[in-house]
Design a protein that fits this description.
The complex is a heterodimer of chains A (107) and B (151). In chain A, 0% of the residues lie in helices and 52% in strands. Chain A is mainly β. Chain A is elongated, with a radius of gyration of 16 Å. Chain B has 151 residues and is an alpha+beta fold. Chain B has one domain (29-144): SoxY domain (Immunoglobulin-like), CATH 2.60.40. Chain B contains 3 helices and 9 strands. In chain B, strands 1, 3, 5, 6, 8 and 9 form a 6-stranded mixed β-sheet that branches. A 3-stranded antiparallel β-sheet of chain B has the order 2-4-7, with no helix packed on it. The longest helix of chain B has 12 residues, at 15-26. Classes of the chains: A mainly beta (107), B alpha+beta (151). Chain A binds chain B through residues 18-19, 31, 33-35, 54, 57-70, 72-79, and chain B through 19-20, 22-24, 26-27, 65-67, 70, 77, 90, 93-95, 97-109, 111-118. Strand 5 (57-64) of chain A pairs antiparallel with strand 6 of chain B, so a sheet runs across the interface.
Chain lengths: 107, 151
């Protein structure tokens, strides 16, 4: 069930630089608005929260609704003052959490 | 409805996408009032000031199932003066809520991009909250070709 997220973080950056981060998690983002062929509503199942932290400190997060498209894509920035690790997490309606990490070297 | 299903399926080449459109067309739509209620909840009743926000959205979205959205709020993003939260609402979707983004000084910029679903032609409203408790707003109209009957 857990899909592998696609993440783009620069490998290196200068101290104080603002880097651009792109993330995508393959996920149906079932809106809860659709009906199956028998007319029954297909239950909602979406990623409802995304969070990014750097060396344990929050950088960016989002509470998302069914109006975010399938395979939720998020692009945001981070200001890096030191080398370290980004941690990303995606929380599903069913309570499961997908996580990923990316390292960056800051000089 | 069946006519739309077939047409949308042809246009998109994806049956599942067509089901989404039909589902949304059959549902009750949000109103600008519902979106305004969401905004009032976000601001605690304060009226946001216009400005400081630039929104990028296509003028015409051919496929309402995935519409690229990005926004940028003009803010210094220092430890004492930064944008903490940004609310995005859609006035014409079944539910107005799209997403709430949370920033910190470590974000560097109060900017983000994602892809959203739009059921029909409508206004997208972005409201930003600063660390000092001020609110700013901006909005943009998107025409949606597939996603509203005859739209």
């Amino acid at each position: 069930m857990a899909e592998t997220p696609k993440i783009r973080v620069p490998k290196t950056a200068k101290k104080g630089e603002i880097v651009e981060i792109k993330t995508l998690l393959p996920h149906i983002m079932e809106s809860g608005q659709r009906k199956d062929k028998d007319g029954k509503t297909i239950p909602r199942k979406i990623i409802n929260k995304f969070a990014a932290e750097f060396n344990g400190k929050p950088v960016f997060s989002a509470n998302i609704e069914p109006a975010v498209a399938a395979n939720p894509y998020l692009q945001f920035s981070a200001k890096v003052e030191e080398s370290g690790t980004f941690k990303f997490s995606w929380t599903d309606d069913d309570g499961s959490v997908t996580t990923a990490e990316e390292k960056i070297t800051v000089s | 409805m069946r006519h739309l299903t077939r047409r949308a399926a042809l246009a998109l080449g994806a049956g599942s996408a067509a089901i989404t459109l039909v589902g949304w067309n059959g549902g009750a739509f949000a109103t600008p009032q519902a979106a305004a209620d969401d905004i009032a909840k976000f601001t605690g009743g304060a009226t946001p000031e216009k400005g400081k926000i630039s929104i990028e959205l296509p003028e015409i979205a051919e496929n309402g199932n995935t519409v690229p959205l990005s926004f940028a709020v003009d803010a210094p993003m220092t430890g004492t003066d930064y944008v903490s939260d940004v609310l995005v609402v859609a006035e014409g979707n079944p539910n107005p809520g799209v997403a709430t983004f949370h920033f910190t000084p470590l974000s560097g910029k109060a900017e983000a991009a994602t892809r959203i679903r739009l059921a029909t032609t409508q206004n997208i409203v972005v409201v930003a909250k600063t660390s000092g408790g001020k609110f700013y707003t901006g909005q943009k109209l998107v025409k949606v070709t597939i996603g509203g009957c005859g739209g």
